[in-house]
Amino acid sequence: MLMKKNIYLSLLFFTLAMPVIAQQPWAQTGATWYYTDNDIIWGWAGYNKVEKLGDTLFNGFNCDNLLSTRHIFNYPTSQFYDDTTHEYTYISNDTLYWWKNNQFVLLANYAAGPGETWLIPDAGNCIDSNYFQVDSVGQMIIGIDTLSVHYLTAHIQFMNPQVRLIEKIGYDLTMFPYWNCQLDYSMNGPLRCYNDSTGLNYSNGFGHECEYTTSVNEINSKEQLKIYPNPSTKYITVSTNKEKGELILLDFLGKQIMQKTVKSEWQISFDVSSLATGIYLLQFNTEKGKYTAKLVKE
């Protein structure tokens, strides 16, 4: 009896002495992300696929080795191209760091509570005055996983988009947000799909599939769909060249704001005075194709 008691106490001590291993909140084994990668102004459309290749020692830190591949259709040249880069991240005490501008910068703080902030990484020459602020912290269920979610506001110069920071997945707007002095906030995104080897699969429904670029008819969007005045504070007029279809206005995260059926009108007016300041996407779906244009609300 005494021996059994000693064995029990030894096992209890061993159990209590074992370190508590926290759940990895970022970059699981086999993690793969797909982000929309469109820019109407500069003339490209496509997607960004990011894969975790494994762990590697980089600049003295045990980092996630991420392969980022951009598959883009370039409007001016009418050609597809792929651009690949390696990105390096590591997490310490629930704070995520990213290798940028030859140093590790804070990318996300999974331990932050409501009201706390962190800077948006800059492009190298900017004043550090743009930041994320935690509005609230909650949970979301994806399949059998219950994941923590930080609901954020990005405080930047021309807009204040709402962003979610999701456990394991990261930002649902763009993987590596940064502030660019000349071009405003980097807006590639939002997240289309995520999956990893744990069985977690997520799709936000923004696109009809994870890997797609653009329809050929989107190439002539500037000619087929025009907005004026743009930027606008109150009313906009949309020119559609008399095609029939559906006009849909989407916000920064791809959420539908308004919709209007177009029959034969070549000009349609919208009241956008109630919209928050920021950048929106106007989408015109017709039998011939899909056309898009960017709207700036001041």
Keywords:
single chain, 298 residues, mainly beta, Immunoglobulin-like, 2 domains, eight-stranded antiparallel β-sheet, five-stranded antiparallel β-sheet, 2 helices, 7% helix, 50% strand, globular
Tell me about this structure.
The protein has 298 residues and is mostly beta strands. It folds into two domains: 32-203, no CATH class; 216-297, Immunoglobulin-like. The protein contains two helices and 22 strands. The protein has helices spanning 2-17, 221-224, and strands spanning 32-36, 44-58, 61-74, 79-92, 95-100, 103-109, 117-119, 131-142, 145-155, 162-166, 170-171, 179-180, 184-185, 191-195, 201-203, 226-228, 235-239, 245-250, 256-262, 267-271, 278-286, 290-297. The protein has an eight-stranded antiparallel β-sheet, with no helix packed on it. The protein starts with a helix and ends with a strand.
SSE-based structural type: mainly beta
Shape: globular
Could you give the count of β-strands?
22
Spatial strand arrangement across the major sheet: 6-5-4-3-2-1-14-15
Helicity level, as a percent range? under 10%
Specify the number of helices.
2
- The chain-level mean pLDDT equals 78
How far apart are the termini? Answer: 79 Å
Structural Rg = 23 Å
The major pleated sheet works out as: 8 strands, antiparallel
How big a fraction of the residues is strand? over 45%
Estimate nothing, just give the exact number of structural domains.
Answer: 2
Low-confidence stretches: 7-22, 215-220
Name the helix and strand elements from N-terminus to C-terminus, one letter apiece: HEEEEEEEEEEEEEEEHEEEEEEE
